[in-house]
């Protein structure tokens, strides 16, 4: 179960702005909940930010000078990119532009196996090919040794990057990075593709007109895929890119839209984030990033189509690899349920494709609502890890705590990567647990709703008004709404019960909602139950007819006391980790026989359920999550149920003989603990 947070708007401000703008009430309520509570900030939000002149970026003029010299001399220029979507789109933009300028230009992107950023071997290889100038895109800010090697080999170096610099900058002719402390540019959140776009504009005399027309679509893809905040200049770039994308002049991208069956009349940032971006990323994660660059730079339609088909195939392979790793993880958890008792999940496997472990970490976090570290063990005795987290558990701080065990690491609050020797895995895991145990409270995933919906909010006109908030993404998330106290009147399975459609009444409103990935036979509610939901609202258009679409993000039975749930869950996990608990805690969590009977009767009636559903149905003043889980553990000890830790599924098992619950290992242990603390 996820923690919910429901924001509130300033109703007085909303009423004031309704009379002074053409925005509808629902849109203004979302903006107010997000802190836009003065007219100037609202105007700023909807006003496309004019991009600063490219020369506002430090060293940009130096970069232009040296690049123009190389073009004029017909020196071989190499664009050194990165293997992710941002690096690929950055490389595409700059390569295409320099080629159109008549430059003698090539590109180089290291395979994922070589690791992120510049490396000495690549620099030496490029020197042998006669490269005279290297321009980095989406990397290079930390290439201290590689910059020295360039100088030693007589290669000029221009760095363009958007990552945070260290204490030392690379010794290059120009280091263009908005995050340099001495950079005067006002907007700091560009991605690599955004910096590359600005470099092209600077080379074009400082005007964005031509480069926007040529590259706004590809730059928008890099911006959304790199999950930089979609505000300020990034919002302008993405809005402009989405205008050009439906009629893109890039053959490979044009074919990608067709093959992914993307409706050109309704392309939004979500199509980039969840469909286009992953396909481009797949080439770097699961094949070669060069495939994607070739797809985006090829002028030959047949070649472009071939590359695009390869990328789509690689993306299918990527999804399959993720599914296989998830199955292995779930099987491991079922064998070692103690993994779930810790505040952070640390999971390792041999041969897991390191190109997808970051995605898997995100999926595991979503499933178990805990910071997650996934480690791939390689044949050479090395291990590579990827971490994903939530507010309250700083990944970079955690990895720094473990740095004595690591070969290399990096990241920020919610994501990071690292490498270490396989022989140090156990010590690393223990160190992670030690760090997590020292935190004041566990970090859990929180879903924030912008507003509690009222029945009259469920109208086509209201929801259509939300479209002005697009493009949505990092820093400007798609609006999430809470519906509390909806009465379910009908439940229907879709696509062989892969999905569910529910009909419900909500005050005076009657509506339907879609629950993707939910089997209607496995829900926590039935017809007639009252539920709470977090939802997205959209408008569907079919045969020219508009209808309201409600998509459920999360749901639960009404009345769940989530703070009690999370506090009791933390207590249960402390108990299972063997931490000492006060005597009054231990007394409270030992179930009475009548409570055991009540829980068993419910399980025997429903046959199949899970811990969260059990909590929603049976929790009360004396029955919390911890005690319920202990009841389940007691039944499992005595063979009355099967329990699957990876899914928390509970399956009733008929018994043919009398069972003495007092002999349960769980009860014996708890009572012995009570004796110790008393």
Written account of the structure:
The protein has 678 residues and is of the alpha/beta class. The protein is built from 24 helices and 21 strands. The strands form 5 sheets. Strands 13, 14, 15, 16, 17 and 18 form a 6-stranded mixed beta sheet that branches. A 5-stranded parallel beta sheet has the order 3-2-4-5-6, with helices on both faces. It has a 5-stranded mixed beta sheet with strand order 7-8-9-11-10, with helices on both faces. Strand 13, helix 18 and strand 14 form a beta-alpha-beta unit. Helix 5 runs parallel beside helix 8. The two termini are 34 Å apart. The mean pLDDT is 94.
Average residue-wise pLDDT: 94
Proportion of residues in extended strands? 15-25%
- Extract low-pLDDT stretches: none
Assign the structural class, choosing from mainly alpha, mainly beta, alpha/beta, alpha+beta, or little secondary structure: alpha/beta
Number of helices: 24
Q: Please tell me how large the radius of gyration is.
A: 28 Å
Which percent range fits the helix content? Answer: 40-55%
